[in-house]
Write a structure and sequence with these properties.
Structural class of chain A: alpha/beta
Number of domains of chain A: 2
Helix content of chain A: 25-40%
Shape of chain A: globular
Number of strands of chain A: 26
Oligomer: homodimer
Number of helices of chain A: 16
Chain lengths: ~525, ~525
């Protein structure tokens, strides 16, 4: 299997159907295939050899889609850069992967001098924006116009398809190496569940396309032969507009986006009845937010995806029926391509219901971390991908993620899983978003602490939050302290950066667990 | 990906659900997993090392299912033997693959002395029948009872999963080597279309389990976590009974079986309303037979699969909606894991609508032929599997198989594709089955000849057939001669053996094309 298969199939079966829609620009399957073959030819002309890494730093666009196809067409290796990173972090990832060619759009062109300064291996910068091409860069459209198309390399199987740097929630970025088979397996397995994709899908790319969450949806729609609608970046009104205008049927969002849509004052003005499937993931969602979202998208089946970049990315899914049947607290079941187990520190299975580390195996598991054999060996020890997530399996084989293992709070000898506390707090009518962390406490070792964003015009007191929480879960899990903030720090993928939150409280300590 | 994944997942998610039903015997997911782990342990004890081939020669049963799982569990290689073969052919395949361990049931135990005589490497015969264990054989149940379970080898990816000898329609059998990824890709891609499989599927194994057509269904149901109902072999009343008794939801059949069910005088006595999906393949089906079958199974969506052993096996599918929308003459569209092209003798694409050879590429394509590097290189030249089938793509990307390339009849300089003629003849009310071949003719080079099986109590004259055919297709395609026979020669997989038919007419000629 290889990433470009869906492009060939779509062009063969529906040459004149719309493949990409971006602003006023619509391109058919046939047009995209021609442009991809030319872009691949242009890259070859620029000296990109098979196996070379080519990076992109861009908001969402139809050209991002072409990049994702032209690199495998030329047997180059994808490196979609996290758009939330600083110049130092981006330069690190370019240098680490030796990405000498970079595509940038208008939004990120101003960063290029700083990148060049930090990584002098950056020889070629292609401007894929719509504004004038800055000095020292090559015009994307001029390249395509001048290039001869080349034949699809059709490399696939275990060949390296891309290096995907993981976000900053768990330490310094690592380059996750995914093969064609890894990505296609996850996409096929996701499609096989019947969720999200259909040949007439109109998929909205509102989450950033650099992230595996959106890329999983991208590849599923590509396989199914549907239409991709891109907006540059998530914005509630832009999403609502695009859904109404293009009769969007499906999308992949992260919970914070769903919360912003559900709580948007203008949401009710739009016709959102075309939406059939919404997949969300990257972090847990509270039941209260999900209930509001289900009212906003009345025809939509909600699917929760649990996964990570290292699993290309889908490990388990919780489908629409299971959302309606009270399974909301679960992350779902292992999908057709994936096997999961819960293990202790020695790699042995724990009893059903007991918490341990989630491990997974199947065709979706990464080749390894780029240039990091020790980390690779640790993550893939015993032949299973160790997710670093704590969870348990219930009697029906549903996975429950209790937390990132390192997010477990040990307070007075009791284990407290922050996701459970967050779920309870989020049900409070004044709460828009919440993160629960452990902070140092002389008496308890760690203390349960909540950081809360209130809905506009609302506020709460710590005592109200404690009382509200204790009505729902055990008293020792209720936060002993509460901070109200304007916004939570989130990664490019919408994950709450708990490390950043913890640093405010643990800053001068050697470690962040007591 | 590895073949045993579905067993682990089903046991984790529904340990006490029925996995196999055979006669009065029902076994749960948990029981099957325990027995598979023990059978694998027993094989290890018998000296079966990783990579060794282990054959089975048996009618369908729940133990066939256990064999299919225990071999990959032990990292042994499957070799499911064609049950229609002669002792000489079977011995050839055992010796060619060096399968020193063989499982046989009651039906085939009498063949064992002849096999031992021809292949002295056959050291161990395991009796997996329900009768008394013959002398010189080991009891399957005694092995399982005495064995210690071993851990699943969980070898997968490109590792060899099985050698599948292709039927005798196109010359001497070749061992098709399929990897875990090959088989799982085809199964995932098939499931991804939404046809056939669901977690609550009750699948009937009525076609022989040695064949990839049934094995594709087997793996799809395994992935989905459904129940497998086995009957020893196809028999119309046994199928009708099993469907009614076990509320069967899906099956894979070959056209000749569908014809026998549709025309069975007792068919109307049975409640067949549980059947939701019927997949058929291995040879084309006439529209007349399909119409009768659609009346017999009123709730069933019919899906036509086009494929071959070398493609593990699914290449294209024609789904239920397309059966209802007049697409019946097509073999469907390339499925999500598969790419197809139509090429000329030089491997270049022919224009849309023109006939050429069907080639395909993707994760489903075989590793190669066992011990046949030249044939492998020929079949996989230019990186594409050359199917040997002639076909064309219409403007919507639907594949139309016009014939096995060698089945094309050239009569008076005109190309005649036998499938088209067969379709026309099969619509005659007296015709139960028909095969059209080219036979030598002094005037025309080759002459279109029809071999017909009439329905009970009916007969036809050659003139009636010619007139009937000419009403439907061009006159030069109508058969110039007709033979009425009691039955057509069919392979173990239900394919009409045209080679056998042709030999009656071409026997003393050096080749069978003029």
């Amino acid at each position: 299997m290889y990433l470009t298969q869906g492009l060939h199939r779509a062009t063969q079966q529906n040459p004149d159907a719309a493949m990409t829609v971006y602003g006023e620009r619509t391109r058919t399957n046939r047009e995209v295939m021609d442009r991809v073959a030319r872009l691949a030819g242009a890259l070859r002309g620029l000296g990109v050899a098979p196996g070379d890494r080519v990076a992109i730093l861009s908001l969402n666009s139809d050209r991002y889609h072409e990049y994702l196809l032209a690199m495998p067409w030329a047997d180059a290796v994808l490196n979609p850069v996290n758009i939330r990173w600083s110049a130092a972090e981006i330069a690190y990832s370019l240098e680490d992967s030796d990405s000498r060619v970079l595509l940038v759009d208008d939004a990120f062109a101003p960063l290029v001098p700083a990148l060049r300064e930090r990584f002098d291996g950056l020889t070629t910068v292609i401007h894929c924006g719509d504004g004038a091409t800055p000095d020292g860069m090559t015009s994307y459209e001029a390249l395509i116009a001048a290039a001869e198309p080349i034949a699809d390399a059709r490399r696939g199987g275990d060949a390296l398809a891309g290096i995907f740097y993981t976000g900053g929630t768990t330490g310094f970025p690592k380059g996750v190496m995914l093969s064609h088979t890894n990505l296609m397996t996850s996409a096929l397995g996701g499609v096989a569940t019947g969720y999200l994709m259909a040949p007439d899908a109109v998929f909205l790319h509102a989450a950033p396309m650099f992230h595996l969450a959106d890329l999983a949806g991208w590849l599923g729609v590509l396989i199914a032969g549907g239409t991709h609608v891109m907006i540059p970046a998530f914005d509630p009104v832009a999403v609502l507009n695009a859904v109404q205008q293009h009769r969007v049927t499906s999308s992949v969002l992260v919970p914070v986006m769903i919360q912003l849509l559900a709580d948007h004052p203008r949401a009710a003005e739009f016709d959102l009845g075309s939406v059939e499937y919404l997949m969300y993931g990257a972090s847990p969602i509270s039941e209260a937010v999900l209930e509001r979202a289900m009212r906003l998208f009345p025809r939509a089946g909600f699917t929760q995806a649990y996964g990570q970049t290292e699993a290309a990315p889908i490990i388990t899914l919780l489908g629409p029926e299971e959302h309606r049947s009270g399974r909301l607290r679960s992350a779902g079941k292992a999908v057709p391509h994936s096997e999961i187990r819960i293990v202790d520190a020695d790699g042995l299975d724990v009893p059903a219901g007991a918490v341990g580390e989630v491990v997974t195996r199947g065709g979706h598991i990464m080749l390894g971390y780029w240039n990091k054999p020790d980390e690779t060996a640790a993550a893939l020890r015993t032949g299973w991908l160790h997710t670093g997530d704590g969870g348990y399996l219930d009697a029906d084989g549903y996975l429950h993620i209790v937390d990132r293992l390192k997010d477990m709070i040990v307070s007075g000898g009791e284990n407290v899983y922050s996701a459970e506390v967050e779920n309870a707090i989020a049900a409070h009518p004044a709460v828009a978003a919440v993160a629960v962390i452990g902070i140092p406490d002389d008496e308890w070792g760690e203390r349960v602490h909540a950081v809360i964003v209130c809905k506009p015009g609302h506020t709460v007191t710590p005592a109200e939050i404690r009382d509200h929480t204790k009505e729902r879960i055990a008293a020792y899990k209720a936060p002993r302290s509460v901070d109200l903030v304007e916004a939570l720090p989130v990664s490019g993928a919408g994950k709450i950066l708990k490390r950043d939150l913890r640093e405010q409280y643990w800053g001068d300590k050697a470690r962040m667990v007591n």
